[in-house]
Amino acid sequence: MKPLIVAATIPEIAILIANFNLHEKEFIQSPEFDILITGVGMTATAFALGKHLSPKYNLVLNLGIAGSFDRSLSLGTVVNITTDEFAELGADDKTHFISIDELGFGKSKYSAYNNLLNDHITQLKKVNGITVNRVNGSEESIKSITDRLNPTTESMEGAAVLYCCEQTSTPCLQIRSISNYVEPRNRENWNIGLAIKNLNNWAIGFLTNT
């Protein structure tokens, strides 16, 4: 058994791939771990995991970058997202949002279940995240989502990974690095390069010492 590393795009983990002398492609197999590049978004992520997730993996490690609602987290900070939620799964009822839980059709929030006590994990701040189809980039949408869910991070894949792992009873871990603050969209304030560097350095250390 070995870990399956899951990322939306190759650039997010290109440093890791190069460090282990692997070739960039959508599904990479090696003796120590496999890597699955899913594509961006929940649908692509769930489809890719549906094809590749199997009992031969003892851990799914979801790696990526994320936006942060919490400005006390410096750009480039690596965090452990222990719970993640499908923020848009439900219905609008005039000014009130009804979650899929309230509708009685399922649940929106999932946890990253694992029993790992690795120092590389325990040193990370635990946060809660949301997963969205449309990243928030206006004062109105940001206020609405923070009032309703008070999330720390935002991504486009995280909850889909945790959902798939729960369905298959596969231990999982979602680690992301903060690339930007969730604010009215302003690319000049982003630091994707630093976020990717710190994320990959963490992942290399974790995989080397596991």
List the helices and strands and how they pair.
Layout: E1 2-7, H1 10-19, E2 27-29, E3 34-37, H2 42-52, E4 57-68, E5 78-86, E6 90-93, E7 96-99, H3 100-103, E8 109-111, H4 119-122, E9 125-131, H5 139-149, E10 153-155, H6 158-168, E11 172-181, H7 192-208
Parallel strand pairs: 1-3, 1-4, 4-11, 5-9, 9-10
Antiparallel strand pairs: 2-3, 4-10, 5-8, 5-11, 6-7
Helix pairs in contact: 1-7, 2-6
List the total number of helices. Answer: 7
Fraction of residues in helix: 25-40%
Tally of extended strands? 11
Calculate the mean pLDDT score and round it.
95
- Beginning-to-end CA distance, first to last residue: 13 Å
Please report which band the strand proportion falls in: under 5%, 5-15%, 15-25%, 25-35%, 35-45% or over 45%: 25-35%
Order of helices and strands: EHEEHEEEEHEHEHEHEH
Describe the structure.
- The protein is α/β, with parallel strands linked by helices.
- Helices cover 32% and strands 31% of the residues.
- The protein is built from seven helices and eleven strands.
- The strands form two sheets. The protein has a five-stranded mixed beta barrel with strand order 4-10-9-5-11. Strands 6-7 form a two-stranded antiparallel sheet.
- Helix 1 packs across helix 7 and helix 2 packs parallel to helix 6.
- The longest helix is centred in the last third of the chain and has 17 residues.
- The protein starts with a strand and ends with a helix.
- The mean pLDDT is 95.
